[in-house]
Amino acid sequence: MMQTLLEPKMIMTILLMGTIVYITYLTKRSATASDYFVGGRSFGWFTNGSAIGGDYLSAATFLGIAGLTFQLGYDGAYYAFCFSIGLTLLAIFVAGPLRRFGAYTVADFLAYRFHSKRARVAAVAVVLAISGFYAAPQLLGAAQILSMFFGTTYEFGIIFTCSVMVFYVGVGGMKGTTINQALELWIRLGAFILMVAAAIYGGLHYDKILAAINDFTGIIPNTGQYALDGKDVAFDGKTWTGTGNFFPSFWQTISMTIGLSLGTIGLPHILLRFYTNPSAKAARKSALMAIGIASVFFFFAVYLGTVGRSIFLSGDASEQVMKDMVAGGNNMVIPSTAQALGGEWLLGLVIAGAFAAIFSNLSGLFIASSGALAHDLYATFFRKNISQKERVLAGKVAIVILGILYGALGLMVKDASIGHLVALAFTVAASTFTPIFILGIWWRGMTEKGAIAGLVIGLLASMYMIFLPQTLPVFLQFKVPGIITVPVGFLSVYIVSKLDRKVPADVNDFMRKVHSKESEAA
Amino acid sequence: MKDEFSTGFKLSLFYYVFIFFIPILNWFASDFAFSRMWGGMTYSWFLTSIVAMAMAFIIAYIHTSLYEKRLEKYDQSTPSSMKEDERRKLG
User: Fold this and answer.
1) Complex confidence, ipTM
2) Residues within 8 A of A (CB atoms), B 54-73 only
3) 3 state SS of A234
4) Measured distance CA(A116)–CA(B68) in Å, rounded
5) Which residues are bridge partners to A217 per DSSP?
6) What are the strands, taking DSSP E only, across A57-183?
7) Tens of pLDDT along A92-124?
């Protein structure tokens, strides 16, 4: 028992948990709904930029991108490229206006823009759908790490992670969550920097390892027993460094590029973060900082996936590391590579970093969804004269409900690839909230019916194309169906708004509020 | 609003030309895209995993800088009393 507690991975994980508990304890007082849901709008660009980075760079980035690069080669790196685009578009079109608008939840935007409860309900449904899609793979990552490195069952991993989240978000609210997210980001970045330094120190330079992988053909030593599907046993380096491993055609590639690049604009937990800045100027700077951090992160993730592949091809690592690299949808490439590069201590830091990634992303999803349930549904429809204290309590009850729902979803995705599941969440976001926010902020002609039609049709179209592609003709079957569902979302809003023509009477006031420089300086 | 949209639209257009240039290169000039430029680093790998990451930041940085310039210009050109009045109107 004592020996287990003294293992580096256990020490690092306990340190992380201790820090979370301490920060949560320090920030537990949330007197008002503003404190609980948007952290009192008190976070400067550095803290909020770090927290946005923490929210955005989830397990999909920390574990999934390297895993996809390891498995798919260039096509995995292309995933990182697509993920890197979205924050920039968000900074350009949405960050500043959204903060000037100022509210508690994503659905507030639609409700105030159109004075519509129906639009609020439609937005809540979409928030819950996107958050569920996004939360499931994060829980999968957490359960896999716990199972692989601490010997727990998959089911225990899901329950444990959900319990931590219920405490972390339920007690700390947005204040505790933001500070934890910011801190957790730097733990992850620190882990990546050390891994990159260890790889370079070990002579695994980018150009050299890519050349070694590219030139490799034949049988990978000692992998026959566990690489059962054969793809990792007989290996062709030229195929790995080229495209076509995952995306069989040009249009499949374009479809994913559209889905992922526009998806970020519609992610509720990222949008919500811009409400926590004190001004629109700080919101824009936060976004810029998050983009800088994300760019470095994606670069590191692809490089480390390549390092993992070169270690795997050389067959030099221990049998356990080699097995771990190809286990569980290749999601454990980063921890296994860390172990191969820097031994138990680096592995310990990376495990803490992976938990940090999962916790910070999940906490954002919990906060966004709890706002949707407590603020948008309960306080709007069931308790109209709700006090601030009751509103905060409703938020906490919503966190417990979400813990149970997300836990159930996590149990359903045991063998999936984290990176790909997140890509699907991006597609739903790109087809629903992205058209709503882009057009809602920049086009006066959008109407309530147009917005609701966009949300409903975008959601149904993306769900259908993700879950039932086999019912469609072959030319419409896309792995990430953004090329169809995103235009469908935009066109639904545009066409229904044009037919409806019932633009809110105060649309000019709304536009002035979200765009005027006077409100910027205020 | 028009200024801001125009700047954002132009930057996004430029960004998307760059973004779509990569898959076009990969699928329609694949011999060049996947030929080596430095060790085992191919042109496409370099653009996708290194240049693109820098590009995301550069575009956002230009946008933020231009916005701050516009804001500064606005602050200098508008008397503070007028701004107060407009703020009150906005609530």
Assistant:
1) 0.84
2) 54, 56-57, 59-61, 63-64, 67-68, 70-71
3) strand
4) 34
5) A236
6) none
7) 888 888 877 777 788 888 888 888 888 889 999
